[in-house]
Task: structure prediction
Amino acid sequence: MKTLTSFLAMVKASLKMFIRNKGTIVFSLLLPMVMLSVFGFLSGNSGPSIRIGLTNHATSQMAVEFERALVQVGAFSIETLTEAEASDALGKGHIDLHVIVPEKFGVMEDGQPVPEQIETRYNNGKPQGAQIANLVISQIVNSLDRKFTGTTPMLEVRTSGVTVNDLGYFDFVLPGILAMTVMQLGIFSVAFSFVAWKLNGALRRIQATPIHPLQFVLAQAVVRLIVVIMTASVLVGFGAWFFDFHMLGSYFDFALVCIIGALIFLGIGFSIAGWAREETQVAPVANLVQLPMLLLSGIFFPADVFPSWLQSITGYFPLTYVVDAMRMIANEGTSLWQLPGDLLGMSVWMVITYTFAVKLFRWE
Amino acid sequence: MENSIILSVDNLTKTYDNGVEAVKGVSFTVKRGEVFGILGPNGAGKTTTLEMIEGLRTITSGTVILDGINAGENPYKVKERIGIQLQSSAFFQNLRLTELIEMFAALYGCKVDPLALLDDVGLKDRARAMVKQLSGGQKQRFSIATTLVNDPVVVFLDEPTTGLDPQARRNLWDLVGQIRARGTTVVLTTHYMDEAQYLCDRIAIMDDGRIVALDSPSQLIRQLLARGFTPHTEVHAATLEDVFLDLTGKTLRD
Result:
């Protein structure tokens, strides 16, 4: 009972000093939120649209229908321009395609439609979007043509777009950013403060009291876990509220992965803190450990863009297991117990990091 | 209870892993309620001796009995009974003095009134400050306050006045007097002979891991004079420090 009270007092005091440190709030909350926002805005519109400059000289019913059909194509963004403006915009790359509807388009003369041509111009250097647009425009013109002349089409294609779980890049990147934050919190927050306390004698002062110093280490770990859960809640809530993040799996499993991940990275942090004798040694070593994971564990983009020999190494990184488990739970609704590979990987890393931490830790 | 033994150290030695013999058989006793000083040049083994008594360092051989407890066998039990001020005592950042006092009290499983304790060491008006905002003298006084949270039977002060200005030093002497007046035994180390002479009932002088003399300051001086010692400087009725304090006053500057 007495032990529990003093342990809780230590957790309370440590939480206060941790949260009053401005750097903590910036790195564990503000920075990830800014990154999430940036990726959220980037992935908010569903892919880049094809920009079309439209010059309509005609006033016929058919020209109106043509324009309406164009506007209805989701992939197009239409701008009405004069011919001079449009050729200028095309030259500067502001539009991908210039569509000119001639004056006599869809006009009837003597009960017969006047044969006319819609002209499209595009930049030869960037044909991709324009060629797709041309196909779509030809289709629109053909269907208008058939309607006008009253012929029935023999062959038709029916297409429909299907939305599967509505997952986008944002759903991919949020677990990545969260895993990254958990890693940095785990490694840096204990490494820096413990080395500082070791050097300035604060750790020694704790040893002068009757509590076992391991209790103090444990209290620090508990504080970091509390902060990790807070950060995860804020980031997931923020992502769901503003950018429509989808959590398909269990929140409990997701939180559990955050905690397991935090414990692994705390182990790395304690190893560095135990080994380092000077504060200046912390940053280089911590960066040496975290940078490869940051770049190669598939935080911002899927790791399968890397050559397979590299993947066979990065697949064993602790961050890879953590971020994979988070994504499988959040994006695919998998339960943590259906991810034996990730569980095994994380357990092995837990054993490795704490073996190192115990071996390397020095109180002075 | 008067003159009963609170601390007895018997043939204490410390050999570090690298083979250095820091303490080579130290024996002494401290009486309840006295102020006991350990003096000696740097490297004499003062701090190592203290740390073995305090349960902070393992004992190579010898015994330490503090308030009836064997420090070598029960370091955590000993730590519950004593207050330790370390030579370089830094505290955690971002905590107010009251919060630190509360935390330290909780580590001993005690409850204290932080404001009353801070008042005792003259820091009541700085209760909401952080340690880094304190002056050198205030830091030392705060450090001593944290050693009192568990109402210890013995307080250990390792060079409590090193680096302080004369006013702060005198102020700390008063504080040691107050602690003694509570009936708490004080064991301290110092490099200042005037301090030892002013504060300590008895002193042990250490050199090269051994105690070379142990007695009250006046007895030690008498013994030296009896050996035919003549001082090589002329003796003034006042010291330079008296001049300094006369000119600048005794008021604390922090």
User: Anything to note?
Assistant: The CA atoms of residues 167 and 253 of chain B lie 7 Å apart.
